[in-house]
Sequence to fold (224 residues):
Amino acid sequence: EPEVTQTPSHQVTQMGQEVILRCVPISNHLYFYWYRQILGQKVEFLVSFYNNEISEKSEIFDDQFSVERPDGSNFTLKIRSTKLEDSAMYFCASSEEGWNTDTQYFGPGTRLTVL
Amino acid sequence: GIQVEQSPPDLILQEGANSTLRCNFSDSVNNLQWFHQNPWGQLINLFYIPSGTKQNGRLSATTVATERYSLLYISSSQTTDSGVYFCAGLTGGGNKLTFGTGTQLKVEL
Fold:
């Protein structure tokens, strides 16, 4: 069964450094998402992406964050200058179409630790 | 935006027991999904169920959209069922899933 994959599984970085989290969505999917989960808390929406542009973003997704689909298979989340509070599990998700009735499939996550 | 509440927050079961987890949402939803987060942090899709009933092995789910709640049933629980169960809903014209705070389930031998 096709699945969303993410790399790396765990990333440790120093405060102020840039990080790029990578995702390969399911191949025929058109909508892509990033969510995050701070340890012990619920999962929160960051951004959705369709047709090479952001379709929706949350208040968390400030100028420090950016997303890109650099080629036909990868979808990336960049954090420009990491802060301690960016430490979280980051989940990528994809859906076949953009309809809000469509199932979102989640990847296994990247655990980001900012020191 | 939509509010999603889950109950109970914590649950301890003996292996073989049955359980029911509940998800209430503040508005009608176009999308309702149940997830299991395993001890490694991975989110596993269980059900896409904006209305009606579905079953998958020992798990089943029912959503009563008109009354704005969904139930997840776990029968004959096993230790591998341990983890956090989240429901997430989506309403309106966007694509943002709003997650509940989860039910932490521990199944003991």
